[in-house]
Amino acid sequence: MAKKITKKRKGTRSEKPVPTNCPFCKEKREPDYKRYSELAKYLTDRAKINPKVKTGLCAKHQRRLATQIKRARQLGLLPYVVGP
What is the CATH number of domain 23-74? Predict the structure, then answer.
C-alpha cells in the first residue's frame, strides 16, 4: 500500500499581524476600567476582545487589558454582547 502524501498548510490569516507598539508601555500607564471609552477601541464590533496579534499590545498589557474590560463589563460600562 502506498502512503498518501499530504501537504501541510501553514496558518493563513486574513489580516497581517500588527507589530508590537504598546501604547501603554510608551505612555508608562496601565489600562483602567474607568476609561471605558478607551477600552472600547480594543473590542470587535460584536464586543469580543481583540487578540494581541491585532491590537499590537505587549503580553503583559494584553492580559491586564482583558481584566479591565471584564471589570468594566461587570459594572455595566461595556457590553458583553451587541444585539442583532
Answer: 4.10.640.10
Question: Residue 33, class by beta-carbon neighbours within 10 Å (0-12 exposed, 13-18 middle, 19+ buried)?
Answer: middle
Rounded-to-integer distance, Cα 55 and Cα 65, Å = 11
How far is residue 33's CA from residue 70's CA, in Å, rounded to a whole number?
8
Domain ranges of the chain: 23-74
DSSP at 74: H
Alpha-carbon gap, residue 5 to 73, rounded angstroms? 49
pLDDT per residue as tens digits for the range 22-68: 999 999 999 999 999 999 999 999 999 999 999 999 999 999 999 99
Instruction: Give every CB contact of residue 25 below 8 A, 6+ residues apart in sequence.
Output: 58, 61
**Structure confidence at residue 79 (pLDDT):** 94
Q: Integer distance in angstroms from the first to the last C-alpha of the chain?
A: 53
DSSP state of 43: B
